[in-house]
Specification:
Layout lengths: L2 H11 L3 H7 L6 H8 L8 H11 L9 H12 L14 H12 L14 H4 L4 E2 L2 H6 L7 E5 L14 E5 L9 E5 L5 E8 L6 E4 L8 E2 L5 E10 L4
Parallel strand pairs: 1-2
Antiparallel strand pairs: 2-3, 3-8, 4-5, 4-8, 5-6, 6-7
Length: 232
C-alpha cells in the first residue's frame, strides 16, 4: 500500500493535519503534512520523514516503503484497506529491519538510510574485512558492509555492529564515516567539519580511541548508510 494512506489514517485519527502539526510544535508544518496525506509528496525529505515517524512511533522506512507501510497498518488496525493485498513473506531487507528493531537499545536511533540506497544496501552487500579493505585498490563495490571490531562508536554502535557503507554518499556532520589513516588502516569514526572548507575530523564516540583527520593525511573512504545493532 502507498505509505501516504497510512500517514493519512494516522493524521485523521489524531484530528487532522493542523492539530498534528501543533502537537509536533510546528504549526507551519500543516501544509506539508496535508500534501503528504493527499499523496502529492511521495518522497519527503529525511527530516520530514523522521518528524512524522517520531511523532507516530513509526519505523521511518514506513514513510517510504509500501511493504513496511502495509505491515504497520495491519499491526495497528488489524486489516488493510480495500484493494490492498496482504504483505507477503518478509524480504531479506525486511528481515534485517526486524532484526535491527529487536537488537537496538531503547532510545538509540538507527541510521536513517537514503531510500535510494536501500535496494542495493540490503541485497546481501559484499562484506569487507580489515584485510580486504587494506588490499582493495579502490575498485571494489560501491556499497559494502563491515563489522565493527572495537567500541570507538559505543554505546550507540558497539563492537559487533554491522555497518553498511557507501562510497558515493557524502559525509554528514555527526554521522559515521570509514576513515583510512596514513598507514592504510581503517577506522569507523564520526565526521566533524573543520574550520576550513577542506579540513575535517574523524572523532571517536569513546575518547579512549584516537581521532583522525585531514591534517593527519587520513582520507574518508565511505559514509554509513545503515547500522544493524548486534543482538545480545
Amino acid at each position: 500500500m502507498s505509505p501516504h494512506k497510512l500517514i493519512k489514517r494516522l493524521v485523521e485519527d489524531a484530528g487532522g493535519a493542523l492539530p498534528v502539526a501543533k502537537a509536533m510544535g510546528i504549526p507551519g508544518f500543516q501544509p506539508t503534512l496535508h500534501k503528504i496525506c493527499n499523496g502529492r509528496v511521495r518522497s519527503p525529505s529525511h527530516e520530514t520523514a523522521r518528524r512524522i515517524a517520531d511523532h507516530f512511533g513509526l519505523d521511518v522506512l514506513a514513510v517510504y516503503d509500501e511493504a513496511i507501510a502495509a505491515a504497520e497498518w495491519a499491526r495497528r488496525y488489524g486489516d488493510l484497506p480495500a484493494g490492498v493485498p496482504a504483505p507477503g513473506p518478509l524480504s531479506r531487507r525486511d528481515e534485517l529491519l526486524a532484526s535491527a528493531r529487536r537488537g537496538r537499545s531503547p532510545g538509540v536511533p538507527q541510521e536513517t538510510p537514503d531510500p535510494a540506497l536501500l535496494p542495493e544496501a540490503f541485497n546481501r552487500p559484499v562484506q569487507m574485512t580489515r584485510e580486504t579493505l587494506m588490499t582493495d585498490p579502490g575498485r571494489g563495490p560501491s556499497t559494502f558492509k563491515t563489522v565493527l571490531e572495537d567500541d570507538a562508536l559505543a554505546p550507540e554502535r558497539p563492537a559487533g555492529t554491522v555497518m553498511v557503507w557507501d562510497r558515493a554518499q557524502p559525509p554528514k556532520p555527526g554521522r559515521p564515516v570509514l576513515v583510512k589513516d596514513a598507514h592504510g588502516r581503517f577506522h569507523a569514526r564520526l565526521y566533524r567539519e573543520g574550520k576550513t572548507p577542506e579540513s575535517w575530523f574523524g572523532s571517536p564516540r569513546d575518547p579512549a580511541y584516537a581521532e583522525f583527520g585531514s591534517e593527519d593525511g587520513a582520507v574518508i573512504y565511505a559514509s554509513a548508510c545503515w547500522a544493524l545493532i548486534a543482538e545480545s
